[in-house]
Amino acid sequence: MTRTTAVRAVLAVLVLLASLFVALTQSPRLGLDLQGGTRMVLEARDTAAAKADAGTTDRAIEVLRQRIDALGVAEPVLARSGENRIVVELPDVQDPRRAAEVLGRTAQLTFHPVEEPPEEGTAGRRVLPDEQGRPVALGATALSGAGVEDAEARFDSQQGTGWHVALDFRGDAARDWAGLTGQAACHPAGDDRRRVAIVLDDKVISSPQVDPSVGCRSGIASGATRITGAFDAAEARELSLLIKGGALPVPVEIVDQRIVGPTLGAAAISASARAAAVGVSLTALFVTFVYRLFGALAAVALAAYGVISYAALVALGVTLTLPGLAGFVLAIGMAVDANVLVLERAREEYPKRSRRSRRSLRGTMSTASRKAWSAVADANATTLLAAGLLFLLGSGPVKGFGVTLAIGVAVSMFSALVVARALTDTAARFPFVDRFRTVSGVGGPGRVRTFLTRRAPRPMRTPRRWLVLSAVLVAVAVTGILLRGLNLGVEFTGGRLVEYATARTVDADTARSAVAKAGFPHAEVTIADGRDVSVRGAGIDDDGAAAIGDALAGQGGGTTAKVRDELIGPSMGEELRRNAMIALGIAVVAQLLYLTARFRWTFAAGCVVALVHDVAVVVGAFAWLGRPVDGVFLAALLTVVGYSVNDSVVVFDRVRELWRREPRGALPALADAAVLQTVPRTVNTGAGALFILAALAVLGDGALADFAIALLVGVCVGTYSSALTAVPVALLLEAGRPAPTGAGRPRTGAARRGERDSGAVV
């Protein structure tokens, strides 16, 4: 065993042992749909400055959403109920009382000049105690918290201030801050009037002296300052999130708070577990059947991927919801991609083995891994870029999806490049495996490659015909959207919330079955205390509400009374939807720039056109099928985006390699060769994902089945578009353009040796 292989093996064992320890000793954070959590109803109150109507309540929802994100709660649900009520669902909240306190505070932040110390009996002046209990006379408000651009808790050990909150002001607020501090700086050091009072909710939280270095009238012109006040870490972080989240436009009061059961019952969870077991088993069997011994080792690496990914999710405290678990199961199937890339590359390299070169199987696998690295790196880099932007710019479910996606990509690379590589390198050293080609699974070209070699098709001879077919698919999809419309889920449209009290205890699965029989299979059902059944869904009219009550009574609930009936606004507010679209748009632009830098702008444009094509077809398919477009569909659509770019990058990486090798070759011919060489990888990777998706679609129910159907369509159309949409677009854009810069430059002997070793020139 070489030193490099030994290092990989030791690293793989250490990471696996650590992951097993985490998985066995720590429990995951489960979402509201799997475990339950806290549900609160907040009521907005009128003030002299603002009326608690639908507009101000919607703005309050967005402020609350930012506060909840800062608290670390993943995938919360917030929806307006009526004109002035807000329904908040917080999955797996450990301290509901603290959450209620943070959400309910109005966080009215103001900055005041400090006047002369008040004399006893002075009237008509606003006097508040400071952080030490001393009276502080406040001047007129000079600046409100609305001018704060950012607030961050920091620790400073050098200056001895400890934990504090750093503030940055924007625009005119920075100028006002300079004026306020400049006015205070005109008084001598030690004078109370040199202080600036920072007031939060009628409490002076800090009244620091303006530093002696600040000149009179000039003030702190940078627009940056800090709030100090002997904070500990928790107090500083809570204050920063309150300030950064902004002030509520109207105060809110919690009128109801309760612990609710999971929105999905044991049957749905069992179905997802069965689908995971069946899908992963079928994928492992398929990979083993295609690649024999090395396929079996890849299946072992996939199992390691599952353990490490789960441990990472648990260790980082990521909240697991059912869509997240379904995406996690799907990622196990897609993680086979890097292994398939290496094994298919080895099938290409193995026939080059000759008695003269005496290239060993281990040498072949090493060369294949190096040649596949470029495609693996670019595909995963674009996905990580999208995941990071979705996390930074998104919120709620979009942010949670970005975390899960980033973890899955990072662990899949470790699984393929460390775990699988250590296993195959070790197996390749055995003489029996090296001597008999059929044992390893990479000694022959494979059925798909053999078929393509015999037929030698030229799909890129007339690329326009594929673009015509793609245009027809998009036209059919758009027609479905225009004619049938989108069946928007309750997250987008709002709906009705009806709560029933049953005479006898009803379990969650029985309640869901009753609601489905009443004609609302997609409604959200939660149970509190066994006898309070809440049903939320779209299209529930008075007759529907009565039918649900009768069904609950007939399913063992006994006498059933309707105790609450309210209209609920969309939980995905306008700002959340807008931020999700902005995050997705920026992610696409960032990927376009990355691919332009790594490839050519024409290749990047082909990837983006294929991506738009895939998204349009998936949305159109759901319009024609009448399936609900909800938060689960949004997660599936984001997965399709990542899959589409990943697939296209692999094809273009091969085009680039062949073009660099033959800079004078005809690009359509090189594109034909690249497409045909990557088809086996595309087919085998897609088949691995389809096994799991089919299991989810057949064994799953409700949202799980919708998730699987969306991805089934996305994987199929993405497999098509990566070669037959992205490449034709690039060919048409490349017509008449020169070959890549430097492609024909003579290479040194070392460079030529590097090309023979790695198969790519960068």
What do these coordinates show?
It is found in: Cell membrane. The longest helix is centred in the middle third of the chain and has 50 residues, at 266-315. The two termini are 30 Å apart. It is built from 24 helices and 21 strands. Residues 742-762 have low confidence and may be disordered. With 762 residues, it is α+β, with helices and mostly antiparallel strands. Helix 14 (463-484) packs across helix 23. The chain is 58% helix and 15% strand. The radius of gyration is 31 Å and the shape is globular. It has five domains: 1-35 and 278-435, Multidrug efflux transporter AcrB transmembrane fold; 37-105, Alpha-Beta Plaits, CATH 3.30.70.3400; 109-247, Gyrase A, domain 2 (2-Layer Sandwich), CATH 3.30.1360; 459-491 and 572-735, Multidrug efflux transporter AcrB transmembrane fold (Up-down Bundle), CATH 1.20.1640; 495-568, Alpha-Beta Plaits (2-Layer Sandwich). It has a four-stranded antiparallel β-sheet, covered by helices on one side.
Name of the CATH architecture of the largest domain? Up-down Bundle
Low-confidence region ranges: 742-762
Question: What would the average pLDDT be, to the nearest integer?
Answer: 79
> According to CATH, what is the class of the largest domain?
Mainly Alpha
Radius of gyration: 31 Å
Shape: globular
Pfam families: Sec_GG, SecD_1st, SecD_SecF_C, SecDF_P1_head
Subcellular location: Cell membrane
GO cellular component, one term: plasma membrane
Family: Belongs to the SecD/SecF family. SecF subfamily. Belongs to the SecD/SecF family. SecD subfamily.
